[in-house]
User: Fold this.
Amino acid sequence: MEQENETHWVDQHGGRWEKRPAHETGPFGRCPRCAQGHIFTGFLTVRDHCEVCGLNYDFADPADGPAVFVQLFACVPGVIFIVMLEILARPGLWVHLAVGVPVLILTTILPLRPIKGWLIAAQFVTRAQEAGTADLWAKLHGADRR
Ligand SMILES: [Zn+2]
Assistant:
């Protein structure tokens, strides 16, 4: 069972890890507890546990949260840019291919990983879970989920 105090996380082996805000670890793919290990094995695949502090990532379930943030804050402005390019400049098809495809890749795929990492770190720091599932979680994973 993990304990905590005001400034540190304390793991089951007595290791003490300085508490950090989610935005200092997750967007960089770093473990939200130790800030040294990694969250991901591939581009978006979450590890089973942190290789440094052993934090079990079973809690990590951002679901479609990263996609929502990407759509709202990156993809929509990117599409608006492409539409405005057509309206204002009426460029040829090759310009849309040369500009539009990279804009869509930059605004949809690249932000997914840092946003997913940030949401996972925020889940850990705030101990967030789906509303009403605390009893189910305790039944499936024991009394404490960390
Ligand atoms: Zn760690």
Q: What stands out?
A: The pocket of zinc ion is lined by residues 31, 33-34, 37, 50, 52-53, 55 (CB under 6 Å).
